Amino acid sequence: MGSGLDGSIDIPVTFTGAIGAACNLPLRLIIAACVRLRIHPNLLTFTGVLISVAAGWQLALGHFRTAGFIMVCANIFDFIDGKVATEMGAVSKFGGFWDSVIDRFSDLSLSVGLICLYASLGRTDYVLITSIAMVFATMTSYARARAESLIPRCKVGFMERPERIVLFMIGAFTNRMAAVMWVIGVLSIVTVLNRIQYTYLELTGRPQPRRGGLTGLFVRAFYWTDERATVPYDLWVLAILAFVWITPPTWLGDPMAPNGQGVLQWLMGR
Questions:
Q1: Which of 14, 77, 85, 201 has the fewest Cβ atoms surrounding its Cβ within 10 A?
Q2: Residue range of the domain that includes 144
Q3: Same domain (yes/no): 260, 132
Q4: What is the pLDDT of residues 89-147, one digit of tens each?
Q5: Is position 24 within any domain?
Q6: Residue 9: beta bridge partners?
């Protein structure tokens, strides 16, 4: 990633970078409209959490596709509030605190919605899986916040909030929420462990794991420090999407698609 002659940031030629570039124009128009209308960014943040609660309610009812569309709306507000604050000159310490706290409520509302759904279906297993994913997703943010009170930066681990939100939307739109919960749960646990390890090594003055050689490939994959919109990031995204979309729902005991087929099963049955 580099700077163009006009000082702008060049987006890497990756498919995640291309998606980001495609979404950038409509979002910039929404940001410009909010700035022109002088809508306070804290109000945008609060509106986003109310919409997320509505998405959680739809998840609780099992209306996944409706929840997916509502999540898209909620995350427009979540994305633009900081940008609007910057352009309006309304950035403040309280605004950052408010945004962080509200984000946790938004995340939890989606997980609680799923837990209510699985509980109503009598699926204790997925109540537990979703609860574990919710706990470690919350701990991901807490571990970073606590670490950065002791060290300058602790941005390691793949499963951060944007990845979780996109996965929730993918699960909702494609009815693959069970697979999504497994991915979020496992990679959130890995991310929390990454942040604990990173903080320990930084505080004790020990070297971080080496990233060279064959061992380094494993370290690079599971001790994540690469940036988004890079080739390694795209590879991880493709691996996750393959698991979510190809794994047959019956293999995971998906409560919402007990007789559904994975993409591989569908292709073989043709």
A1: 201
A2: 123-270
A3: yes
A4: 988 999 989 999 999 999 999 999 999 999 999 999 999 999 999 999 999 999 999 99
A5: yes
A6: 3
216 in the same domain as 188:
yes
Q: Are residues 168 and 93 in the same domain?
A: no
**Model's pTM, two decimal places?**
0.87
CA gap 263, 242 in Å, rounded: 9
What does the alpha-carbon distance between residue 111 and residue 108 come to, in Å, rounded to a whole number?
5
Per the domain annotation, does 3 fall within a domain? no
Are the CB atoms for 243 and 186 separated by under 8 Å? no
- 80 and 26 Cβ atoms separated by less than 8 Å: no
Taking a C-beta distance cutoff of 8 angstroms, is the pair 253, 266 a contact? no
Do residues 68 and 172 make contact, with C-beta atoms less than 8 angstroms apart? Answer: yes
Can you spell out the DSSP letters for the chain?
Answer: --B-TTSPBPPPSSHHHHHHHHHHHHHHHHHHHHHHHT--HHHHHHHHHHHHHHHHHHHHHT-HHHHHHHHHHHHHHHHHHHHHHHHHT---HHHHHHHHHHHHHHHHHHHHHHHHHHHHTT-HHHHHHHHHHHHHHHHHHHHHHHHTTTSS-----S--HHHHHHHHHHHHHHT-HHHHHHHHHHHHHHHHHHHHHHHHHHHHTPPPPP--HHHHHHHHHHS--PPSSSHHHHHHHHHHHHHHHHS-HHHHT-TT-TT---HHHHHHT-
Final residue before a domain boundary, out of 84, 105, 120: 120
Which of 120, 153, 187 finishes a domain? 120
Per-residue pLDDT of 7-25, as tens digits, reads: 444 445 688 888 888 888 8
Query: pLDDT tens, 200-234?
Result: 999 999 999 988 878 888 888 889 888 888 888 99
